[in-house]
Amino acid sequence: MSIIFFDIDGTIMDVNGSIPPSAAEAVRQLRQAGHHCIINTGRPRIAMEPQLLELAFDGLVCSCGQYIQLDGRVLRHVGFDRDTSRKIRAVLKAKAERGEWLGTRAPYGYIRNPGTKKLEVDEEAAAIVRRIFAMCASGNGPSQIARILKKEQVLTPTMYAYTRYGITHTCLDTAHPYNWSDSAIANLLENEIYLGNTVNMKHSTKSYKDKRRVEHPREECLVFENTHPALITREVWDMVQRVRKNKRRLTKMEEQSKYSGLVFCADCGSNMVLHRAHTMSASYNHFTCRTYKKDGEACTGHYIRECVLDEVVLEDLRRVTAMAREHPEKFAAYIGSKQSTELQREIRRQEKELAAMRKRKAELDAIFKKLYEDSVLSRITTEQFQMLSSSYTEEQNQIAAGIPQKEADIQRLRETVSGTDGFLDKAKRYMDITELTPELLRLFIEKIVVHEKEVKWSKHAPQTVEIYYNGIGYVGSGQQDVEEALEAPESLQTQDTEKPRQAS
User: Fold this and answer.
1) Phi first, then psi: what are they for 75, rounded to 5°?
2) What would the CATH number be for the domain defined by 97-245?
3) 123-137 and 142-151 are packed helices; what angle lies between their axes, rounded to 10 degrees?
4) Cα 332 from chain centroid?
5) What pLDDT, in 10s, does the model give residues 248-267?
6) Mean pLDDT, rounded, for 210-239
7) Does pTM surpass 0.90?
């Protein structure tokens, strides 16, 4: 009789976390022949996969020898202490700093190469991932995408891993193999792994005793670019994130506007709402200010027909992209000079808001410290402390969440100048734009700002529409400097001189 020790990864389990039938059969035959088969791993006992335990090994050596089990009897069990936690954290940190993938299972759309330990593309699942991003880029939200995949009977990631590789998961539901959730779709759309990046140290625990998960802002994570093949392009990723930022909602007709999340009121800054009805001709579909819809005295309607907006946007998009192609150097110079002023003004405004948020955070921290001291010294009762502190808790949480977002917004603004090259590249690829689609709009346009008519409800009064492009901002509205800079015979004025008729 002999004792045979087995490692887990690459020995009993393959790179995808499944147990090959040959490995299970080998263990069975060895035990049948009278040999003791024991797992020897650095993992703690609690982290052992259920399918491993189902193989009925004779014993376990876990946590680098701190847990030993033989024939069902625990021979050694050293408690998980601070030193062990520190060592494990040090190992994980070292791997994270090298840009290694720390997950135990390959993400949906990938497989893990057993030799190189690198992520490789699983083409069958990758096709679904690309389709999910494409559906989102066209304006579908996570709930809609989930319903489409369920209707088409596309296997969920956990079910796919189980049927394809034999991998089990705690969320595996074999009774509902096509039950995609909107949260699963949302998490997939926000995962940079599909961009070819590895993001480590996204979360941690407070200590070896306190297992509560602490999420880290992206600027505190370790980001490694191009660590594995990307499933989507940067262009698609940016488009999807813009769509996710401006979540699109269905109309009462269970339809979506291609402009949803893109059109804004120039006066109050709120979204413009599309009005349409089965009994109304499509030519009468129109946008109005959301604030005006809720309170007619808080703003004005800013009424503009969808067909008119189509004409304005399409014409301006074709003109701007044409000028970018025909005069790339002068176009870039003009955008750069314009951005330098506008961006600096916006950056200063955002920085003032960030400074105010940080100041208020410091004030709240001081208030909580004083309240705690008063509570400890019995200057106030426990009930008083809880009552007083709770009134500041919500504000403190909002500021804590808002500061990283504000910092990210400022960083994005500082990087905006570099967007000119990207816009020029897109302008060269889309040389014949004849129709506006949701994908095209989000590829080129950041937002559309609609002003009120110079004479409200006038049939012939001009109405200015400002179009802000991704990476370059607002190009212009017919000023002489634009024409001179680009040597273009046409202006960039985007005015609707036709009075949209009121919907009946």
Assistant:
1) -90, -25
2) 3.90.1750.20
3) 130
4) 30
5) 555 454 466 788 788 999 99
6) 77
7) no
